[in-house]
Amino acid sequence: MLHIDSPKLQTLEQCLSLNSNEEVLDGYQCDNCHSNSRAMKAVYYPRLPELLCISLSRFSVAEGKVSRNITWNLNKLNMEPYTADHRIPTDRTEHPAPQYEYECYAVIIHAGRDISSGHYFTYARDLTLADSSMWYKLNDSQISKVGRQPEIFGNSNDTPYLAFFRRKQSGSSGGKL
């Protein structure tokens, strides 16, 4: 699971980029020689799983619930810019290039105004179907079709909290929304 902060940003890609920005560390103590020096810190993922869960930080002590909308393309999330392969190029002659594209198949939504109250429900689609573009809303014991373009990003009180992605298969175009 990746935990992503979402300070005043509008897209998941912006949040991922912020998470992987290089940061200068002044006065960093080297583990080997124990001297203080300037160092760089950055987060890059060495390998990505077939199934990926991204947790969006939606609550803060200072602000309470963070109701800013964060959006992303439900059919295509390119994770390559956030990988070690992108940062440190390697010779790909011996091994095929890994697949970096993901498609979203479920989103857990927090409905409510603050951290102490509210309700959770899910939007999901079945990616095993030939036409996987149909989304469903799963809310307690009720399941309803919501169409090809669900209201995942539409309501300020209903905010995405967890997003689930599956690595796209080679040659797969995914469902169209």
Automatic annotation (TrEMBL):
SUPFAM superfamilies: Cysteine proteinases. It comes from Verticillium longisporum. CDD domains: Peptidase_C19 (cd02257). Pfam families: UCH. It comes from the Eukaryota. One of its GO terms (biological process) is protein deubiquitination. GO terms for cellular component: cytosol; nucleus. This is USP domain-containing protein. One of its GO terms (molecular function) is cysteine-type deubiquitinase activity. PANTHER family: UBIQUITIN CARBOXYL-TERMINAL HYDROLASE. Residues 1-168 form the USP domain.
